[in-house]
Amino acid sequence: MRVNETRDPPSLKQLARATVAALVVAAVVLAVVVIPAEYGVDPTGIGEALGLVILSDPAAATAADVRGDGLVAEADVPRSDRITFDLDPGAFVEYKYRQEPGQSMLYAWRASGPVRSEMHSEADGAPTGTAEFFEIIESTEAAQGSYTAPFPGIHGWYWLNLSDDAPVTVTLTSTGFYTYAMEFRDGSRRRYEPDPIEIPLPVAEPE
């Protein structure tokens, strides 16, 4: 059974206390948050500690510490590539992308049998036959991840079929920032132009 309850209205004393409490809270928020953020005036010093004073001063915001890592602007569009290699027993292939410092890509590759895999790069101007190695795996069938070029040059993979009697198929896919790809095989080289990915820019909404 529901019982109807009646309560007495708050007294003038209770209303006065609630009003005073609300005014105190509003004054604290005004002094600590609103005035430092909007006008750059920080009577308590708390606004500066919370980083609110900088919001009222565009010049101070410009002078704020800005990290130099994590964000790399690109003038060119990203590209996507998918390629397959058939390797006879004991045969190998190298496939590398042209990248500038800071350019990155996502990659994934899979082999139909065990291969020796090396991820290495050849820097511009380095002596012929020298390379920087980032990964060497003696026997594997797949790998995936991301790579960011630390210097200008060609960056990519070497695969060697470890089998004595069975061919191996290696398939590589990648997406990222690079300009072209080079295949090195049987003493020759071949250049590829991966397809660009068109990413439409946001269109301003009509007013």
Shape: elongated
- Which consecutive residue ranges, at least 5 long each, have pLDDT under 50? none
Q: Please report the first level of CATH classification, the CATH class of the largest domain.
A: Mainly Beta
Largest sheet: 9 strands, antiparallel
The radius of gyration computed from the alpha-carbon positions, rounded to a whole number of angstroms, is 31 Å
Query: What's the rounded overall pLDDT mean?
Result: 83
Which CATH architecture of the largest domain?
Answer: Sandwich
- By secondary-structure content and strand pairing, the structural class works out as alpha+beta
Would you count the extended β strands for me?
9
Query: What is the element string, with H for helices and E for strands?
Result: HHHEEEEEEEEE
Strand percentage, roughly? 35-45%
CATH topology-level fold name of the largest domain:
Jelly Rolls
Q: How large is the count of helical segments?
A: 3
Name the CATH homologous superfamily of the largest domain: GOLD domain
> How many structural domains are formed by the residues?
2
Gap between N and C termini: 58 Å
Fraction in helix:
10-25%
What does it look like?
This protein is of the alpha+beta class and 207 residues long. It has 2 domains: 13-62, no CATH class; 79-196, Jelly Rolls (Sandwich), CATH 2.60.120.680. The protein is built from 3 helices and 9 strands. Strands 1, 2, 3, 4, 5, 6, 7, 8 and 9 form a 9-stranded antiparallel β-sheet that branches. The chain is elongated, with a radius of gyration of 31 Å.
